[in-house]
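Action item from last week, closing it out:
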Amino acid sequence: MHRSPRVLVFATPHDVARTLARRVAAALHANPKIVLGLPTGRTPLLFYEELVRLHADEDVDFSQATTFNLDEFVGIAADHPGSYRTFMRRFLFEHVNIDPARTHFLDGAAADLTEECERYEASITAAGGIDLQILGIGTNGHLGFNEPGPELEARTHKVTLRPETRRSNAALFGGDPAAVPSQALSMGMGTILHARKAVLLATGESKAGCVERVVMGPITTALPASLLQLHRDAELMLDEAAAIRLPG
């Protein structure tokens, strides 16, 4: 029998962000060499803001931590303003004492994308695997850029983005969904599920339908986030709006 992820509900998105940031700070203190899997998008922005504050106010130390980002767009350089490398620098890495050599990204401009995906998997393995994978969820239930479909790739791979995913990333490309690359590289579902612990952040009523299906519905590739039901140590951290359709 599958065990659904544990569910924690907080009053506001700020409460979610503060709680998770405190947890990550404690994890860094307990294991300075922790390997973190990190997301991008609107939902984790408050979480990153809290991590920056904890570093400034309480000297939370990132110097020995290693990070792997979930995904990256295909066909744009690392310094492109819409790249996820730029996103992470802007909102987290430039504000804490992390070693740039320990921050890992997929290269969407690589000449051989298959080779790039294999390189990334090898880097994760060489780092000892991901200790804590933090996730967001798309309005269609995707994790990373693992889009709904009849089957899901287990390992890091190239994916064609669905229109709703391109629309949700339009802000990074001048507000124009057509300017968002049509393809991306993403950790696969197997890579995500092999993290020792996974925490999914979801805030806002627009995520409530997907959250309900993740917690209450069947495991299906039509909702990639539902595969978190298979994870040995997964947790959902929600605000009240995202949890509005859950019982109790």
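Closing note: The radius of gyration is 17 Å.
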